[in-house]
Amino acid sequence: MEGHEIVGFVAGFGTTFAAASDLFAILKRRSSQGMNPMMAGIMGSFQIMWVHYGILIDSMPVVVWNIIAVVTNFLMVGVFFNLPAL
């Protein structure tokens, strides 16, 4: 693995799991209060474009982390519609 790929994986880890921490917090408190599903849906939609871009430029870090981010954001939307806002 080359140096720029290592930087890409570290950066992707940070940005992807920043959103995942919100998902874990919502699940822990069992409430979707304060969550904006529109933001998560928009982010997930544009991250699909990042996945496509990563494929076009043959960048594994861009592809991998954005696939994880897409799943995380769409899980957030699903959680919003399945948990009460207390």
UniProtKB/TrEMBL annotation:
Protein name, please?
MtN3 and saliva related transmembrane protein
Q: Which residues cross the membrane?
A: 6-27, 39-57, 63-83
Keywords of the record, alphabetical order, are: Membrane, Transmembrane, Transmembrane helix
Q: Name one Pfam family in it.
A: MtN3_slv
Which is one Gene Ontology cellular component term of this protein?
Answer: membrane
InterPro entries assigned: SWEET_rpt
Q: Which domain of life is it from?
A: Bacteria
Q: Which organism is it from?
A: Nitrosomonas communis
